[in-house]
Amino acid sequence: MMKGYAGKMLRVDLSNGRISTEEVPDAMKSNFLGGRGFAIKLLWDEVKHIEPLSEENKIIFSTGPLTGQSLPSSGKMVIASKSPLTGGYGDGNIGTMASVHLRKAGYDVVVVEGKSEKPCYLLIEDENVKIVDASELWGKNTFEAQDLLEKKHGRNAGILLIGPAGENRIPISLVISQKGRAGGRPGLGAVMGSKNLKALVIKGTGSIPNFDDEKLKELGKRGYEEIKSKENYDFWVRQGTMQAFDWCNENTCLPTYNFREGVFDSSKELDGYALEKFKVDRKGCPLCNMQCGNIIKDSSDHPSELDYENVGMLGPNIGMRNLPEVALLNRMADEWGLDTISLGSSIGFLMEASEKGLIPEKIGWGDFEAARKLIVSIGKGEGLGQLVSHGVRNASETLGKGSHRWAMHVKGLEISAYNCHACPGMALSFGTSPIGASHKDAWIIAWEISNDRLSYSKEKVEKLIEFQRIRGGFFESATVCRLPWVEVNFGIHWYPEYLEAITGKKMSWEDLYKIGDRIYHLIRAYWKREIPRFGRIWDVPPDRWFEEPLSRGKMKGIKLDREKYDHMLSWYYERRGWDENGIPTKETLDHFGLKDASEEIIG
User: Fold this and answer.
1) Cα distance between residue 140 and residue 21, in whole Å
2) 128, exposed or middle or buried, with CB in 10 Å at 0-12, 13-18, 19+?
3) DSSP secondary structure string, 155-181?
4) Which CATH number applies to 8-203: 3.60.9.10, 3.40.50.300, 3.40.50.720, 3.40.640.10?
5) Using one digit for the tens of pLDDT, what is the confidence trace for 546-588?
6) Where are the beta strands (DSSP E) in 57-106?
7) Contact 490/297 with Cβ under 8 angstroms?
8) Helix segments in 137-253, DSSP class H
9) Residue 485 clears pLDDT 90, i.e. is over it
10) H or E element: which one contains 20?
């Protein structure tokens, strides 16, 4: 048995109350590593041609061999399911004490299926697992429910939960932990809600059976020390991901007025330096010494945990200029269990629809009170909020009138906070992300801007795939945070060393790339199996970036070139071993040991 894994999978069927465990096969560990890898393997095998909000769907909470170890930023897990927002594969990582506790409880992965007759939560205390009545929690927001569960089970318990938006099966809802940690953008809160599952509470007291604990302890100590010695560390501690705000505005890629522009007049009122003036605390994931959660008092004097994505999408993207007011919108989103990226895009869509006279309601850019009311109506799926509560793709299909051209999504998932009018490589990154328009798989934008920014080159495609292999392949499956490597230049060489001390198995980056590629191929096959019409057009960003040039900033007059983007996409497919429609070939799937996928989608 490979070391470094608990070796057990916990299965819970809420329909009949059945709870069981089974071994995680060594082949699954070797071929898929953990995290996202385990998730797509389980979904491929077990979730086929079903409605995402039906009881036949499964939601998976998956860790990797690095999760919960005494290593930098290792407090992560991946939550995955068939997405009610996109219809394809959906996942998201989340930093939470629940990750550490799950490993200490003796499980690598939890698979929940079925539907409880009444609201419930799952209580995992080592080998003691119970389905507990959650009637008193149902209807409570995530902060209220967190407090009640901590009071009952202790402040140190790992807690994952949904808010009223998830209970209402809103497809832009997600999973919240620790009053501000969030994961599962493609509607995974709605999947929990569809199962009447309010929360998971996890308490573990065991240890992880590693190959060489002493070596791992020493490597971890040296890793933490290296991070603190980095040149950018102190600045990171001050601003976290909010340092990207000023950089994006300077480089004309800040999401502004529903991604219409890339610069914002009031950026100085919202950027990392503005945040420093309001900052009262910071917090982050367990086992992290470069915490990224900056806390300020919002306009109602309540604490709100901010990072770049939620300030970008609830700030300039909807014309908001006041940071404490942005913080209040962000806190409301966390309480309701709504994804701040999709929420900012949804509100921006409605503001633009109002501006264009496509809806009767008058909602001006930067209208704080209207935004507050919209969050409530979106969380309830009522009134005007109902139009966008299923995402902007669905809203544009309902509204019509050419609104699809500025519905800012890829594959149905709203674009995160980077305007790509003048960033073809990042546009391709959004286009080819395996869950939709997510930045987490390949944040190529910084490399692109510092190199040949406006080129549509094969070199850029190669770099994109390299980043996907490291970020979307390795980090999402190991499962560990990418920010030490990305933000303070923590040595990438550490990770194979960590894995060897944990598992006893020596793996090169080429070995890890192959695992990452296998995961990407299987996710791609999953999209094709679940959505037969899936293909090339699903990898193209919105028309706005191709048709409406920027009118301000140093990139004024620039827009994406559709023909050149199409060439890049073809090069990407060729390099991946996919056909011209973006589907993995039989040869590729067979080469990676995915013959069942090959037979199912190709024959």
Assistant:
1) 31
2) exposed
3) TTSEEEE--HHHHTT-TTB-EEETTTE
4) 3.60.9.10
5) 999 999 999 999 999 999 999 999 999 999 999 999 999 999 9
6) 58-62, 76-82, 89-95
7) no
8) 142-153, 164-167, 188-194, 213-229, 233-239, 243-250
9) no
10) strand 18-23
Q: What is the Cα–Cα distance from 537 to 104, expressed in whole angstroms?
A: 44
Structure tokens at 193: 């809600």
Class of domain 424-489+508-601 as given by CATH: mainly alpha
pLDDT of residue 123: 98
The tokens for 120 are 């419930």
Where does the chain hold its CATH 3.60.9.10 domain(s)?
8-203
* φ, ψ at 550 (rounded to 5°): -60, 140
Give the pTM.
0.97
Residue 445 near residue 417, CB atoms below 8 Å:
no
In angstroms, rounded to a whole number, what is the distance separating the alpha carbons of residues 465 and 442? 8
CATH number for the domain running over 253-414: 1.10.569.10
Which H or E run includes 182? strand 181-183
**Cross-strand pairs, 79:** 61, 92
pLDDT at residue 206, rounded to an integer:
95
Contact 403, 357 (CB under 8 A): no
